[in-house]
């Protein structure tokens, strides 16, 4: 989370640079099976890190660095998947990633999938371990320990780990402008308090519109900055791939949960 995998920690991320970026839009067929994942957070904080210890890697990822002033966006329109990366203010080594996907399942099913913390590693490919260290249901608090792992070239592996605090918000009822109906929204904020990132915080947001009771818009927002010895441009591509795979995996699991419930 850790993983962009899934989870969450605390925070509101609102200060993102406003310089006019070039846009790169890639279109591809809908992704039905999650592919290589990693830098774990998942939500789990998929997902999703501030603080402490360092990670280990036998080899640095060799993804080509993107242009410094670019904002990248990837879309898969078949499942409503969108991912956007932008620089965060004046911090050269910090990025803000926004992503969302449409899930053909009610909000409750998506929520149950995200908060099944100890089960996240069962369906998120890049999440090697997700341990629930502490939980206070009355306060909507959970502390997770997550380990992500990715295979690199020549048999090397890239590992990332972290301790993530998650804060589960209450259900919100939102008025629909011009209509008498209301939409529902629920969020999980997350913050990595110890791990392989200097900063890793954001939130998961689940929105169910009144006219789409069987569909949920799952959104993910994270602001991240690796430890000083890891240039974020080297990890950017892998982080985006990880987030994409996490979203697709969560989508599939929530839809599977819904199908089983109907049966």
TrEMBL record:
Q: What is its main location?
A: nucleus
This protein's GO CC annotations: nucleus
Residue spans of biased composition, Acidic residues class: 67-76
User: Residues in domain Coenzyme Q-binding protein COQ10 START?
Assistant: 103-237
Residue numbers spanned by region Disordered? 48-81
Pfam families, A to Z: Polyketide_cyc
Gene3D superfamilies in the record, alphabetically? 3.30.530.20
Compartments where located: Nucleus
Q: What is this protein called?
A: Coenzyme Q-binding protein COQ10 START domain-containing protein
Give the species.
Urochloa decumbens
